[in-house]
Amino acid sequence: MSTYWDVYCVDCKSQLGLERTNHAEEAMKTIAAKAREIVELGAWCASLDLELVRLGDTLSFEWFGEHVHHRLVARNEYGENSGDCNRRSEGPHSRDLLCRLPAGHEGDHVLSKRWEE
To answer: Which partner for 99 in 43, 47, 66, 87 could form a disulfide, CB atoms 3.0-4.6 Å apart?
Structure first.
């Protein structure tokens, strides 16, 4: 089954916008963890008027510059963050929310602030 991944800013709820990154969870986790280095690379590339391209998509240095001090995670096309529990809420009155506690956490899944659409 195909699953596309991207880099997501938890603080701003903004996505980098890479496409065609099928089964790229580990790559997106690495890119998210290297935001500071990507910003530095962007400054160097700008001085040479270069653009970095990955899998046919442009890696936006500007986006990383805006989000370098935010919480960046790998997120798939279903809204699941890598490393989160990602259990969907249940029940007749619940909305489709995901648990944002770490995978394997203790406790139940009663709706609370840890849930996100």
So the answer is: 87
DSSP class of residue 106 equals S
Q: What angle do CA 51, 72, 81 make, to 5 degrees?
A: 120
pTM: 0.78
Dihedral sign (CA 57, 58, 64, 66): negative
SS (HEC) of 21-56: CECCHHHHHHHHHCHHHHHHHHHHHHHHCCCCEECC
Tens of pLDDT along the chain (117 residues) come to 789 999 999 999 999 988 778 899 999 999 999 999 988 887 887 777 666 555 445 677 888 999 999 999 999 999 999 999 988 876 555 667 888 888 988 877 765 555 555
**Which residue type occupies 33?**
A
